[in-house]
Amino acid sequence: MNTLLEKVRALLGADAVLDPGAAGVAPRIAPPTLEAVALLLRTATEEGWKVRVEGSGSWQPADTPADLALTTRRLDQVEAIEPQDLVATAQAGVGWDRLRQQLAERSVWVAIDPPGLAGRTLGSIVACGTAGPLRQGLGPVRDHLLGVSAITGDGRVVSSGGRVVKNVAGYDLTRLQAGGFGAFGVIVRVHLRLHALPRADQTLVLEGPREELSRAADDVRESGLLPAAMELLSPALARRAGWALAVRCAGSVAQVEAEEAILRTTAGGRFAPLAPEETHAFWQRAGEALTVRPVTLRLGGLPDATDDLLDMLQHQLGDEWISASPALGAIRWSGEAPADRLRRLRKALAAREVPLTLERAPWELRRTVGHFGAYKEGVGPLVAGLRHTFDPAGTLVVPVAAGE
Amino acid sequence: MERAGQDALAVARTDSLVVALEAIVGARHIRRTTPERVTYAMDGLPTHRSVPGLVVLPGARDEVIAVIRVLAQRGVPFVPRGAGTGLSGGALAAPDAVLLVLTRLNRILTIDPVNRRAVVEPGVVNVRLSAAAAPYGLHYAPDPSSQTACTIGGNVAENAGGPHCLKYGVTSNHIQALEVVLADGRVVELGSPGGEPWGPDLVGLFVGSEGNFGVATRITVRLTPTPRAVRTLLADFTALRAAGAAVSAIIASGVVPAALEMMDRSCINAVEDSVYAAGYPRDAAAVLLVELDGTAETAVETDAHAVAALLRERGARAVRTAADPKERERLWQGRKKAFGAMGRLSRDLVVQDAVVPRSTLPDVLEAISAIAARHRLVVSNVFHAGDGNLHPNISFDATDLDLKARVEIASAEIMDACIAAGGTITGEHGVGLDKLRYMPLVFDADALAAMRAVRRVFDPEERVNPGKVVPVHACREWRQAVRA
User: Fold this and answer.
1) A289 has a chain B CB within 8 A of its CB
2) Could you report the per-residue pLDDT of A369-395, keeping only the tens digit for each?
3) How high is the ipTM of this complex?
4) What are the b/e assignments for A65-80, b being 16+ CB within 10 Å?
5) Based on C-alpha coordinates, what's the Rg of chain A?
């Protein structure tokens, strides 16, 4: 341990050691630059050190066994915001709240609303691919990335994509990084696609039994409305007595007024608008609450299977903390989940061609069941090959490829 | 790049291979004589030409798998091809390679209106899918200009775009799952029917890989509700710079147009001289075609008024709104057929493709104009202004070798200008052969090496579409991750 710390101090300076660690607790190293990350990983590979990666430490539990923890929290610069081109570049360790605020000051935003605490880092959001309710109308995290720079497990810098909104030069390695849980390198810099802040942003909520809300969601979908978000929230997440269907309309004033008018004619006119001062808190609370319980996972099915999937979840794991986009078939669940139940659920879901992604969980559970579980036939060797390409010595501790 | 004469290794002469392939697809779906093979010597890029050694046209998924397995056993390189409308030379096969033409796999297997998705074979023509989805109030959003001919499989390979990608996204945003035959004949399923990645996003990685990772035999796409309200505006400007500024103003306003296209004077006149004449003002320096769509008529109308006001504020001489669907179609036909109309200007046309930050459009357009003047070339611009995705089109006669050389030099200078402005070398046409030489200008040796290593995970022998996308000589030495 001491040798490791001495080497790290010699390489990166004493300041880089954020926490020297203790018995059973890996030292936490915070490289101050991208080059320092590369140097550290190169050395780790040479020395055979195992590295776990974290951002602000607010999403994944810090219990992954490793020789050292590499935190990106000092890579926290918003390097460029170009509202006229609707692009921004930020280092991976920047907190989501700070990035959002700086963008809002320039009248732009990244149109995603990832779950997690306010200070969760951009790198964590990209690595875990955790989109929130806005995935319904504005797409998953990967749709908002123009490029990513990542440092491979053996310390090489690989930059993909660029800073323009359309780009097909070379293979899309950015998509590999988004949702790759850091298995293909440590994400250090992200080029983001921005949108102009919507001129109007209104959320309407309908409360009631889940089945009734599912029918209401179908009605909204059939009305032709394409809201920014339409999320079915369990009572605990919505902080209401019953389930809630929250529809977020965002865009020009005329567009939002028209969408609101359509919503008022569905579900017997029972959709109630949230007051402007309530709106932000409503969505933020729902996102933050998904980190209270030890495990968070997501399913991706077909829209018409959403009810069945919710029933399965309820049966296998309970339904206290659920956030679902019924028009997409995307469901996020949080709670307590023993490994055997997760395996059983995954098996049942696999038969329906529904992937279950373990987004956050204590290490033992992640190790046992993996972020993705078993792959379809023939895919496992591809993932293992990619993993080996970007981390040949297995320096980064990530349960992504089969057998890890 | 002329390779028609190099036939020493032509696989067409390898009788046992032909016999093996004939047993799979039938003799009438093999092209082995020179006149037959010459038909496949080019795609939509007139500066490159290569006659494939043999052309095979399988008619079903199982035939594709069997053909690829035969080629794998014999170590024969092959190139998958759709309709051959690509503009980067990506579908060209060398004389030692087999061209695998997928146009006979043209069945729409499923349309699922409830879940807004479809499953198609790779040879389905883009516009036919939208037509099939139309009765359900749905359409397939990516709409490249070649959509009446190009195939979904080709769109997947190139990550094709189109005018309406400004609002709806490019091909990559619309592909949910793929069945892929790898170079060794193994079949893998990537993604899931609902679109959630099953593991790392290998669908996202595959889309735009230009055939290097294998052959997609089944493609699950997302269908998009057809907008109920649409307004199409035509604004004309007396200065390119003012048109460019208007683009930025619209984007900054928060209104997201479905499409925002620009055509310059040369393009306008080519269209107006053709059968596709759309009534564009011939004396304008540029026109902008702006389309807004949505669910509600009132909202789209209001937003269209706001955009029209912005256009006038930014110097539009006139803003015309299409009065009815027929006029809308006419305005769009001029835009979509502009490349065809340019055929009137000269014998050949290079449709270039690059992307720049939107705010640099006016400067880059001026730079392109200066490059054209310096090399005494006719360049017409028609492009996706809202995305900053330029298409400078160079009209020339490829039989004039001096002229052809000037076209190549000018193309390189245009790429340099776009990269210098912070842009990239292709937004929707792909690298293929044409852009190979520019890859080191936008990616360093480590990034290129990583790309090559990724390709070798899918195709360790680099037999599928060899020599495309990644310039091998520019890759840094990279530990290979080749797995048996």
Assistant:
1) no
2) 999 999 999 999 999 999 999 999 999
3) 0.97
4) ebbbbbbbbbbbebee
5) 21
- The token pair at B370 is 């200066």
Contact of A201 with A248, CB cutoff 8 Å: yes
Paired tokens of A77: 């610069």
**Phi and psi (nearest 5°) for B200?**
-55, 155
- The H or E element containing residue B180 is strand B175-181
User: What DSSP designation does B125 have?
Assistant: B
Query: Residue A24 burial (CB < 10 Å; 0-12/13-18/19+)?
Result: exposed
The pLDDT tens digits for A229-263 are: 999 999 999 999 999 999 999 999 999 999 999 99
Task: Print burial letters for B278-299: b (CB count within 10 Å at least 16), e (below 16).
Answer: bebbeebbbbbbbbbbbbbeeb
From the candidates B138, B196, B305, B431, which should be mutated to test the interface with A, based on the most A CB atoms within 10 A?
A: B196
- Percent with pLDDT over 70 in chain A: 99
d(CA A113, CA A130): 9
Q: Which helix (H) or strand (E) holds B262?
A: strand B259-264
Strand partners, B39: none
Distance CA(B182)–CA(A40), nearest Å, equals: 36
How buried is A380 (Cβ within 10 angstroms: 0-12 exposed, 13-18 middle, 19+ buried)?
middle
Q: Which A residues, 357 through 396, put their C-beta within 8 Å of a C-beta on chain B?
A: 357, 372, 375-379, 381-386, 388-390, 392
Helix (H, G, I), strand (E, B) or coil at B286: strand
C-alpha to C-alpha distance for A266 and A256, rounded to whole angstroms: 16
Tens-place pLDDT, residues B439-483: 999 999 999 999 999 999 999 999 999 999 999 887 776 654 434
Cβ-count burial A221-245 (b if 16+ within 10 Å, e if not):
beebbbbbbbbbbbbbbbebeebbb
CA B171 – CA B165 distance, rounded (Å): 8
Q: Which residue does chain B place closest to A370, by CA atoms?
A: B199
Measure CB to CB from residue B458 to each of A170, A173, A382 and give the nearest one: A382
Which two three-digit tokens encode residue A372? 């993705």
Q: Count other C-beta atoms under 10 Å from residue B32's C-beta.
A: 20
pTM, whole model, 2 decimals? Answer: 0.96
Paired tokens of B1: 């790049």
Which helix (H) or strand (E) segment is A369 a member of?
helix A363-369
Q: Which two tokens stand for residue A149?
A: 């720079």
> Among A49, A61, A129, which Cα is nearest to A357's?
A129
Nearest CA in chain A to B197: A355
Give residues 258 to 287 of A whose Cβ lies within 8 Å of B: 258-259, 261-262
**Rounded mean pLDDT, B110-135:** 98
Tell me how far apart the terminal alpha carbons of chain A are, to the nearest angstrom.
24
Tokens describing residue B409? 């030099």
| Residues contacting residue A97 through CB under 8 Å, at least 6 positions apart | A118, A119
Q: Kindly write down the DSSP assignment for every residue of A173-185, as one continuous string.
A: HHHHHTTSTTTT-
pLDDT in tens, A329-368: 999 999 999 999 999 999 999 999 999 999 999 999 999 9
The sign one gets for the Cα dihedral B114, B117, B118, B119 is negative
Distances (CA, A) of B447 to A161, A380, A385, B471: 10, 24, 17, 11
Residue A282 gets which letter from DSSP? H
The pairs formed by B415-422 with CB atoms below 8 angstroms and a separation of 24 or more are B415/B354, B415/B441, B416/B441, B417/B364, B417/B367, B417/B368, B417/B371, B418/B354, B418/B355, B418/B356, B418/B364, B418/B390, B421/B356, B421/B357, B421/B360, B421/B363, B421/B364, B421/B367, B422/A163, B422/A164, B422/B356, B422/B357, B422/B360
Quick one: angle between helices B361-374 and B240-252, nearest 10? 150
Distance CA B153, CA A267 (A): 41
User: How many whole angstroms separate alpha carbon B452 and alpha carbon B472?
Assistant: 8
Beta-carbon count within 10 A of B401 CB: 9
